[in-house]
Amino acid sequence: MKRLKILEFPDKRLRRVSEAITTFDRGLKRLSDNMLMTMYEEKGIGLAAPQVNKPVRLIVMDISEDRDQPLVFVNPVVSSFEGKVESNEGCLSVPDIKTDIKRHETITLNAQNLKGTAISLEADGLLSICIQHEIDHLNGKLFIDYISDIKLQRLRKKVAKQNKAARIERQKNTRLI
Ligand code: NI
To answer: What does pTM read for this prediction?
Structure first.
C-alpha cells in the first residue's frame, strides 16, 4: 500500500467534477486501499479520490472509534434526505480551518461497492455528514464554500496567527549549537 499526496486548497484540481466509475478492477481496489491508508495516516475520517488527484467518483471513510470499520462507496448518490443538522467540520485538503456547517440530518445513500454491486443505506449523525462532505468533493465543492468570504478570511487570519505563534514557540525551544 502507498500513502498518497493530498491536494490542498486553493489547488484548482480540487474543483474538478469527478467522472463516474465504470470499471471495477484491481486498480480500483488498489486506489481505495491506498486512500484508506492515507486517510488513517493523516487521521481523517473520510477521503474522496479527487483529493488525491484521481478525479473519479470514489469515497472512503471510517467513523468508528477504533478505526477498524472502513467504508468504501463507488458512484455515491444521495437519493433522499430529511431534517437539518449543524456540526463543526474540517477537511484534510483545507488544513487547520474548522467551521460549523449545516447538512441534511438523515440521508438515503445509493452507491456501488468495489465489485460494482448496488448498495443502499440510511445514514444519520456523523456518517450522514461525512458522506455529504465527501460527495461534495466529487462535485468540486469544499465545505468552506458554505461560508461567506468574510468569514473564511477571518478564519484564515486566525490560523495564520496561531501558526505564527507556534513557530515563535518552536524557535524559542531551539538550542543553538
Ligand atoms: Ni474533505
So the answer is: 0.93
